[in-house]
């Protein structure tokens, strides 16, 4: 049985949800004509072997178009996220495993958008948002996710009894 994320009942009910696109939609308007013109040039010049490159670009564009980071906070304080088509299943960070959270400006550590791999943050999702939610677990592993609503996430974390690190101090 499939349950819509907003219809899940307690203690798993969703108290916060956010969906973030990988790239802003206006960028596709810029990219589409370039791909179209390149496709026309390749198909009219009898270079059929190179036309696979255009098909590849088109598939990559579609992949970016359908990429959305889905992030939820449940009523029992668990943080869940997935990022299809790169990650189809939810990763859950349980409340009892969270040491603290902090929210920083998006570009402070990552210098751009995309999926980032690092020793400090493992796999992080830095998308086109204002802030990064950094979740530090009790085994000192960190996970960074793009979020837009800093104030609401901090409010919910404090209500759930999750420590929040602000300006270098855990509150």
Q: What's the gyration radius in Å?
A: 20 Å
Can you count the beta strands? 11
- Biggest β-sheet: count, sense, barrel? 4 strands, antiparallel
- Let me know the average pLDDT: 78
N-end to C-end Cα span: 40 Å
Which strand-content bin applies to the residues?
Answer: 35-45%
Structural class: alpha+beta
Low-confidence stretches: 1-11
Q: Estimate the global geometry from the Cα principal axes.
A: elongated
Keywords:
171 residues; alpha+beta; four-stranded antiparallel sheet; three-stranded antiparallel sheet; 11 strands; 28% helix; elongated; disordered N terminus
Verbal overview:
- The chain is an alpha+beta fold and 171 residues long.
- The protein has 4 helices and 11 strands, in the order βααββββαββββαββ.
- A 4-stranded antiparallel sheet has the order 1-2-3-4, with helices on one face. A 3-stranded antiparallel sheet has the order 5-8-9, with helices on one face.
- A hairpin with a 3-residue loop joins strand 3 (79-83) and strand 4 (87-93).
- Helix 1 runs antiparallel to helix 2 (51-65).
- The radius of gyration is 20 Å and the shape is elongated.
In short:
With 171 residues, the chain is of the alpha+beta class. The protein has four helices and eleven strands, in the order βααββββαββββαββ. The chain is elongated and about 65 Å long.
């Amino acid at each position: 049985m499939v349950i819509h994320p907003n219809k899940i009942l307690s203690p798993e009910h969703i108290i916060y949800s956010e969906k973030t696109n990988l790239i802003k939609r206006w960028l596709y308007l810029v990219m589409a004509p370039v791909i179209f013109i390149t496709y026309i040039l390749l198909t009219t010049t009898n270079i059929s072997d190179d036309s696979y490159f255009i098909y590849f670009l088109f598939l990559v564009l579609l992949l970016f178009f359908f990429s959305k980071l889905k992030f939820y906070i449940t009523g029992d304080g668990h943080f869940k996220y997935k990022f299809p088509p790169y990650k189809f299943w939810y990763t859950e960070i349980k409340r009892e495993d969270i040491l603290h959270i902090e929210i920083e400006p998006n570009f402070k550590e990552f210098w751009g958008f995309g999926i980032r791999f690092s020793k400090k943050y493992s796999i992080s999702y830095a998308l086109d948002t204002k802030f990064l939610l950094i979740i530090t677990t009790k085994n000192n592993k960190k996970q960074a996710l793009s979020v837009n609503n800093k104030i609401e996430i901090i409010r919910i974390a404090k209500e759930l009894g999750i420590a929040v690190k602000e300006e270098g101090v855990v509150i």
